[in-house]
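Ticket #456: bound-state structure for 4-fluoro-L-phenylalanine.
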Amino acid sequence: MSSKREFASKIGLIAATVGSAIGLGNVWRFPAETQANGGAAFLLIYIACVLLLGVPVMLAEFSLGRSGRSDAIGAFRKLSPGKPWWLIGVVAVLASYLILCYYMVVAGWTLEYFWQSIAGGLFDGLPQTDGTPLRGFFSGKMESYIATDMAPLVFTFLMIAINIGVLLGGVQKGIERLSNVMMPMLFIILVAMCVLALSLPGAADGVAYFLNPDFSKIDASVVVNALGQAFFSLSLGMGILVTYASYYPADTKLGKTAITVALLSVGVAILMGLVIFPAVKSFGLDNENLRGATLVFVTLPEVFAQLPLPQLWAAMFFFLLLVAALTSTVSIAEVSIAMFQDRCHMSRRAATFTVMLPLFVLSAICSLSMGSWARYTIFGMNFFDLLDSFTTNWLLPIVAFGTCIYMGWFAPNGLLRTELSNGAPAANSTPVQKTVLFIIRYLAPVLIVAIVVFSL
Ligand code: PFF
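RESOLUTION: The complex was predicted; output attached.
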């Protein structure tokens, strides 16, 4: 092993875990979901889901990882040798790898947009007349940056190469060092963008939309979507947190860590909402365009184009997106790398290349499926969308469900209690620990099954 597989400092382990949690899910998926599900009411349910369900499930994954001290498959094998629980780990590794294939492509787009912002390409040929709708202009740019073959492919490959560079450095010198530098930058940029957005004329309308709940908009699908968003944005159900927690020193306080990670992740989502909704309302850009790729790659450039120094704002924003994407892609890749290191006794170097080299082919297929291969579909979806819906709708809930059932009922006696109380005897469990155990045993599994059934 080239470097010790343990985070070196408390700040480092928080930065890395927060780096994994805060990703495209917070900065891109969250505002789109909020918009699609009626604004502030969705925000409230999302926060409730994060705190009541997300944190306990996160604690189950942390406890499994830290006590197993191994990769996502090895943790189950060590704790329950000879039993088939390790199959949950297999699904987790598979899920994370499939997600990596398409997440890397979106990460490539963020790199491309960042590059085009600093090089000036994004605003090249911008119509100068006041009041001209800019949507067509930026949709055209998006077409040429994302829905073509060559450029997105090149930037996806570059992103894979950057990931390899970080991952070869190992846990401390690669992942931890990257997160320590990048995460504070992400927060500073986000706060700066927030100040800018809130100072725009008419920003208050956007704030009201985002923060004044209209409870009549809540129905079962809003709750299901909020829970899905909570799991996605906390990186639950794919072995990431199990793997990272296996790098936590023995004295790490799991409860404190989970709360910190959850609050920071929610905080970033809220700040992001406070950037997007005021900016969009201020310029009267219509809300139906607040969807996934269009929101980030068309609507926001439209906002930037109407500000002084558009290139600077665009570069800042896409750098933020790039940081969010990079610290998440390394965490997703780490699940498989740890697996090869532990299961196949590979060196860090061999494991990194074994995991990352096939991505040059698999991510290329995803990338091309947004370009000229979009005409090839399976079940009516291109390869990219197929991977996305198969993993998020099926594999993640299976892993999250399996982990809760295992940790709640079948793990060695008292394991969860011991981990949560850092070794204190069971008789001394606090009410909070008892509540967490109850949620892991009953509430979380029932709700996860409900989500899957509801979305059928
Ligand atoms: N939690 C991160 C995000 O919200 O983007 C990273 C992530 C990893 C998201 C894996 C989704 C996922 F399936």
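RESOLUTION NOTES: The first helix runs from residue 10 to 21.
TICKET STATUS: resolved
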